[in-house]
Amino acid sequence: MKKIIPLAALSLTALLTSHALAASPTGISFRELEYQQPRDPLLPAAQSSDIVEHTAPARLANAAAALDAAIPVGTSRADAEAILRKAGATCRPATGTSERCRYFDVSTRDPYVDAVRWNVRVDFADDQVRRLSIDRSWVRS
């Protein structure tokens, strides 16, 4: 019995690792970014559940670095759109030179349920990525 437990744990680890790698061939996944995100601060119990909270930019540094690595400046518009879509986002043109890509998730890593939105703005010049900006907002219920 003692030999079965470590073997089962090793098999489960290999399965989860292979699933995580297969889930995002681009190397980036909004679901994974959300999972790696530090927990959101606890809110006062009396706070209304319809208040939209925004994650501080400092707390998004790792996610921003991952996005910058996956979509460096100079990436073609088509490739950037494809990477963001494979990562789970829905993209729509905001203007002729920018797009807004959004990802929605529900997080339940603590006793609360958070409706989470990731927003990525991609600015283009000559159909190539010029700049990415990221925002994460959430509503607790």
Helix content: 25-40%
Order of helices and strands: HHEHHEEEE
Query: Mean pLDDT across all residues, rounded?
Result: 79
Radius of gyration: 18 Å
Task: Tell me how many strands there are.
Answer: 5
Low-confidence segments: 4-26
Strand content: 25-35%
Signal peptide: 1-22
Keywords: Signal
Summarize the structure.
The chain is an alpha+beta fold and 141 residues long. It has one domain. It is built from four helices and five strands, in the order ααβααββββ.
Layout of SSEs?
Blueprint: H1 4-23, H2 30-36, E1 53-54, H3 61-70, H4 77-86, E2 90-95, E3 98-107, E4 114-125, E5 128-140
Antiparallel strand pairs: 1-5, 2-3, 3-4, 4-5
Structural descriptors:
alpha+beta, signal, 141 residues, elongated
Task: Describe the structure in your own words.
The chain has 141 residues and is of the alpha+beta class. The protein has one domain (27-41, 48-140). The protein has helices spanning 4-23, 30-36, 61-70, 77-86; strands at 53-54, 90-95, 98-107, 114-125, 128-140. The termini are far apart. Residues 4-26 have low confidence and may be disordered.
